[in-house]
Amino acid sequence: MKTAYSRSSSSPIPGYSSNAVLQLIVASGVGFVAFFFTVVCFQAFAHMRYDEAWEKVISVIAIPQSQHYSSRWWTLFTYGWSHAGFWELVTNMIWLYCFGSIVQTLVGYKQIIPLFICSLLVGGLFYIGSQFIPGFVGRAHLLGAHAAIMGMAVAAFTLAPKYRIYMGPTLGIPLLLVIVIFLALMMLNTSLNPTAIAMLAGGGLTGFVYIKLLNSGYNPGEWIYSTLARVETVFTPDERAAIEKHNKRRSQVLSRMYEPKQGISQKRIDELLDKILQNGYGSLSKDEKETLVRASKEK
């Protein structure tokens, strides 16, 4: 497998429908806004102080310490879709774009969201499980997409360890150097908390295994898009079938209105009705309209 890749700073950006990285950035932004909007609503309508409202909301979406997890099991699925601060969100989204765009370029956009979700789940499980190790104490609340971004970083490096990001015609930054800087910043952000490091390790391991599965011919993310396609098929009618059904009903109505008369053949009437179905009644000439009028009159 070829591993020497590069991306120019002027590479075209895919459209939104085929840009899963951009979709995740938008989703994370929406989650962040929704989180703080809910905090403000609790302040305004429940008459809470800001810190009380913050604690009320974050306890519902962030992974708690292990002794409280059994009563808040759903937080494994929600903790990665919001962030505790604006700059944390911005920096995480920059890293997501950096590593996610590489993965998206090399294996396609349909692998991004499954990889993101799997990394979040496994990272969260590593975080919870590590707290059962003596001396490993988790944070009061775990919030943010750090595990998923670690998964993207490791996935990008596993795909193309010699990848270079070009900032100009000649300035190419090795992907390895970018990942080293990212890891250093992540370690500082965790304050070397062992449970947070375990979370990052879980996300990174997921990225590595995911790409190895892809290279071996197995598509671990296929089920997500196939499920969405089946749901869309159920709730979205086939447009072509709907049009054909409508035209068939319209043709039946028109056929009952216009029956063959003396001097006007069925073939001629069908030709005129087809023209109406395709281009509308206004497309008929004056003579054609008169022909239909005569065909519609009683004998």
Automatic annotation (TrEMBL):
<protein>
    <submittedName>
        <fullName>Uncharacterized protein</fullName>
    </submittedName>
</protein>
<feature type="transmembrane region" description="Helical">
    <location>
        <begin position="171"/>
        <end position="188"/>
    </location>
</feature>
<dbReference type="InterPro" id="IPR046483">
    <property type="entry name" value="DUF6576"/>
</dbReference>
<feature type="domain" description="DUF6576">
    <location>
        <begin position="260"/>
        <end position="297"/>
    </location>
</feature>
<dbReference type="GO" id="GO:0004252">
    <property type="term" value="F:serine-type endopeptidase activity"/>
</dbReference>
<feature type="transmembrane region" description="Helical">
    <location>
        <begin position="194"/>
        <end position="211"/>
    </location>
</feature>
<keyword id="KW-1133">Transmembrane helix</keyword>
<feature type="transmembrane region" description="Helical">
    <location>
        <begin position="21"/>
        <end position="46"/>
    </location>
</feature>
<keyword id="KW-0472">Membrane</keyword>
<feature type="transmembrane region" description="Helical">
    <location>
        <begin position="140"/>
        <end position="159"/>
    </location>
</feature>
<dbReference type="GO" id="GO:0016020">
    <property type="term" value="C:membrane"/>
</dbReference>
<feature type="domain" description="Peptidase S54 rhomboid">
    <location>
        <begin position="71"/>
        <end position="213"/>
    </location>
</feature>
<keyword id="KW-0812">Transmembrane</keyword>
<dbReference type="Pfam" id="PF20216">
    <property type="entry name" value="DUF6576"/>
</dbReference>
<dbReference type="InterPro" id="IPR022764">
    <property type="entry name" value="Peptidase_S54_rhomboid_dom"/>
</dbReference>
<dbReference type="Pfam" id="PF01694">
    <property type="entry name" value="Rhomboid"/>
</dbReference>
<dbReference type="InterPro" id="IPR035952">
    <property type="entry name" value="Rhomboid-like_sf"/>
</dbReference>
<feature type="transmembrane region" description="Helical">
    <location>
        <begin position="79"/>
        <end position="100"/>
    </location>
</feature>
<feature type="transmembrane region" description="Helical">
    <location>
        <begin position="112"/>
        <end position="134"/>
    </location>
</feature>
